[in-house]
Specification:
By secondary structure, the chain is an alpha+beta fold. The longest helix has 18 residues. The mean pLDDT is about 95. The relative contact order is 0.27. It holds the Pfam family DUF2000.
Length: about 140
């Protein structure tokens, strides 16, 4: 059984190169999708009757933050009981296996993890409270 949300915001380190930023967003989105009921809408037919696979049915803005802002988002999200959070660190992105990622992460305290992205999901109010007025990633 998964969660249901009104909104999910993805926050990415603004200093990541474009390819790594896209990889971060993809990894976070896949993880959110695994645990979220109803996040993907029904398939849609076009005028020719061709079927198009459903896409996300809730707002999913991608925001940008510098490393300090991202750490603030992470620490606010960790302390909030009304949101679902998926974080992504440079440790995850640079590890060659899930085993390596698990081992390396176990050696770093939460407040010192090198966050490069985070998905924060919940009510619009809860998500907006944590992500503040961060700008869209463009």
């Amino acid at each position: 059984m998964g969660y249901q949300f009104e909104k999910c915001a993805i926050v990415v380190d603004k200093d990541l190169p474009a390819g790594l930023a896209m990889n971060t967003v993809a990894a976070l989105a896949l993880s959110v999708g695994k645990f979220t009921d109803g996040i993907v809408g029904d398939d849609v037919k076009d005028a020719d009757g061709r079927l198009h696979t459903g896409i996300t049915s809730i707002p999913l803005p991608v925001l940008k933050a510098d490393a300090e802002e991202l750490r603030g988002v992470a620490l606010r999200a960790v302390g909030a009981s009304d949101v679902f959070v998926v974080d992504f660190t440079s440790v995850a992105q640079s590890s060659r296996s899930y085993e390596e990622y698990t081992r390396r992460t176990a050696e770093i305290p939460t407040g010192e993890l090198p966050y490069i992205g985070m998905a924060v999901c919940g009510s619009r109010k809860a998500v907006d409270k944590i992500t503040g007025s961060l700008p869209l990633y463009r």
